[in-house]
Amino acid sequence: MSILAFTCLGSICLLYLLSFVSMVMSQTFPYSHCPCGSNNTASTKFRDNLNNLFNGKLYDERGNSLSYNTTDGEIPDRVYSNYICRFDFSPETCRNCVNKAIKNIVEQCNGTQEAVLWRPTCMVRYSYRNFFSTLELVPIKYAWTAGNITRPAQFAMILNQTFNDLIERAPLNPSKYAIHESNISDFERLYSLAQCTEDLSTEDCSACLKAAFEKVTADSVQGMQGGRVLIPSCFVRYELFRFYEVPNVVGSPGPIFQPDGEFIKFSLSKYLDK
């Protein structure tokens, strides 16, 4: 895990810092989890089924979807696999990310019967067991954007409000995601995202996001100005710069709006000493 920590003054230096932090974090990807040992060794038939799935079926079968579950083969060598892309991706961008993730997971987890791999904006997973519609909280991967938070306690208060809102709204969205933008000063905003796999129940999505938020609020990472937590069933991220595009889909439950249509906007200034 890469952590960048130094203080910078001035708007130009701040932009450089954010760019460099983003670059450093991207170099840590992909994150993979593919346990070694005889208990995770795939049979020849399982490998053949996985190869068939990765050679087009995983993505091509569903077309333009940003997430999908599928299988290949028969028990006991059946392969269960899924992928998920970040909500704001185009189908083409999602396909490119999934293809790269498939290449990575084959390289890093060759011969295993269970593995998961994250790229910065998508995840690919496969297993010998049926994990569809099942809450999975391990493994957990995370990375933090270090930086100077002048009032960490107050920042944590706003972050807590933000994630409480995301945990409430994302599970209710049929696409299982929500974003939140908050003013934290006259010139800074906090951008946050929470997303679950679409096959999770409302309750399981909420539980997954709560588990992710527990990592964000751990004492060891207090004061970090950004970060992400990656879990097989969900992921969250928050930064002081916009890292996503706001979709414009007619008829969808607006991901940054409350049910009454009001824009969600918390101001940190009322919690700070003038």
From TrEMBL:
Task: Write down the Pfam families for this protein, in alphabetical order.
Answer: Stress-antifung
What range(s) does the Gnk2-homologous domain occupy?
A: 28-131, 137-243
Q: Which UniProt keywords apply?
A: Repeat, Signal
Q: Where is the signal peptide?
A: 1-26
* Gene3D superfamilies, A to Z: Gnk2 domain, C-X8-C-X2-C motif (3.30.430.20)
Q: Which InterPro entries does the UniProt entry name for this protein?
A: GNK2 (IPR002902), GNK2_sf (IPR038408)
Report what the protein is called. Answer: Gnk2-homologous domain-containing protein
